[in-house]
């Protein structure tokens, strides 16, 4: 049995996105709105790539720290706490952004908006047993 290669899968996913104007056209994530976020590792200081499903809030991109339904926050969330400056590739464009972990009423608003756009996220709070963190990625060139 061949072992699954996560890096090769991600590389292929990104290649597909780039070849099709930012849209995934093959595999299990076909049609999902995906972005590539490169953050700085909190401990290592090295670039760390994450491919994330997103929704929009005006000019900002919104991602959920669901970790695919895991009971623990994703590692990239810890990176953002220490290093909020990120690089993003989404919708066939590349840009720098500032990541902010959103709390309270704004977090709830973004969560509800995210679930409305991506209904499969609705099951994650019960599955994870935690409040799913919401992150706003605001392009640094935004007005």
Write structural notes for this entry:
With 143 residues, the protein is α+β, with helices and mostly antiparallel strands. It has one domain: Pnp Oxidase, Chain A (Roll), CATH 2.30.110.10. It is built from 4 helices and 6 strands; from the N terminus they run αβββαββααβ. The protein has helices at 6-19, 75-82, 104-117, 124-128; strands at residues 34-40, 47-57, 60-64, 85-90, 93-102, 134-139. Strands 1-2-3-6-5-4 form a 6-stranded antiparallel beta barrel. β1 (34-40) and β2 form a beta hairpin. The termini are far apart. The mean pLDDT is 91.
Task: Describe this structure in a few short sentences.
The protein is an alpha+beta fold.
Would you spell out the secondary-structure blueprint of this structure?
Blueprint: H1 6-19, E1 34-40, E2 47-57, E3 60-64, H2 75-82, E4 85-90, E5 93-102, H3 104-117, H4 124-128, E6 134-139
Antiparallel strand pairs: 1-2, 1-4, 2-3, 3-6, 4-5, 5-6
What are its keywords?
Pnp Oxidase, Chain A; 143 residues; alpha+beta; single chain; 6 strands; six-stranded antiparallel β-barrel; 4 helices
> What Rg is obtained from the alpha carbons, in whole angstroms?
15 Å
Number of DSSP helices? 4
Straight-line N-to-C gap: 52 Å
**CATH level-two architecture:** Roll
The helix/strand class is alpha+beta
Q: Give the count of structural domains.
A: 1
Averaging pLDDT over every residue, what do you get? 91
Looking at this structure, what is the CATH superfamily? Electron Transport, Fmn-binding Protein, Chain A
Order of helices and strands: HEEEHEEHHE
Beta-strand residue fraction: 25-35%
The quaternary structure here is single chain
> How many distinct beta strands?
6
Fraction in helix = 25-40%
User: Could you describe the largest sheet, including whether it forms a barrel?
Assistant: 6 strands, antiparallel, barrel
Strand order of the largest sheet: 1-2-3-6-5-4
CATH top level class name:
Mainly Beta
CATH topology: Pnp Oxidase, Chain A
Given as residue ranges, the uncertain stretches (5+ residues, pLDDT < 50) are: none
